[in-house]
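Table S2 (text version). Query chain:
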Amino acid sequence: MGNDDEQVLTLSDLFQVASWQSTLPWKPFLDGVDIYRLYGRAESGPAAALLRFHAGGRVKLHEHTGYEHIIVLAGSQVDENSKAETGALIINPPGTRHAVLSEQGCIVLAIYEKPVRFLGTTPSPPALARPRTVFLAVNGTLMRGLELNPALLAVNATFVREAATEPAYRLMSIDDRHPAMIRVKSGVAVAVEIWSVPVDGLAAILLNEPPGLTIGKVTLGDGSEVLGVIGEPILCEARKDISSFGGWRAYTASLKSNSDAHNSEKVES
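Corresponding structure-token output:
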């Protein structure tokens, strides 16, 4: 999916972009915003690009010198005029001004008739300011609906997507209370959830984790690296290897199924 101006470019399933965004060669653009240019450049003439706002990403105050069309493909964004959710089309006529914020992150298709003009170095209004964030891969009780998930919500972390690691990890059960994921030479792909976490909330999350779990770098199946919850090797010694289940949810579901079957047999007997 190159963006060479001399080639035909086809992007399929645009409203599913969140699931294949990692295949695009994003480049840093603005504060908490990445860009993938489809055609044209910002300096002159018409242009189009995909913009990926991380949680708290913003575009400072700017003026449109031509028509701008924005289609929100995933997530939502807000400016002085309104909040735009997934599926919204926003048309900004020449001469209009605004600053843009995405509180929880979003991906938009932006089509410009002419370049925008940023107004000095004035940042977005203070009310729109948000802390910088990082992506964190979680593989156990920090996941949605599980025991420690409130620790993520307490620091204003937001769920981004489900994913899987590259096949280089083992998943161990720690007394069936929580898992510990470790990197090995030959392993499996482990199911994880990717969360966008304010940088200043990482310490609070780590302090709430069970002993022997820490935060390190995790490689995902698409080759990208994010921070993630991993287990110390000593914690995993002589523990039950549950890697064949592919993830903590699948393993705990099997425990529940076995328990229900056992209880059913007791009733029948």
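Notes on Table S2: Residues 95 and 219 are 45 Å apart (CA to CA). Residues 248-268 form the longest helix (21 residues).
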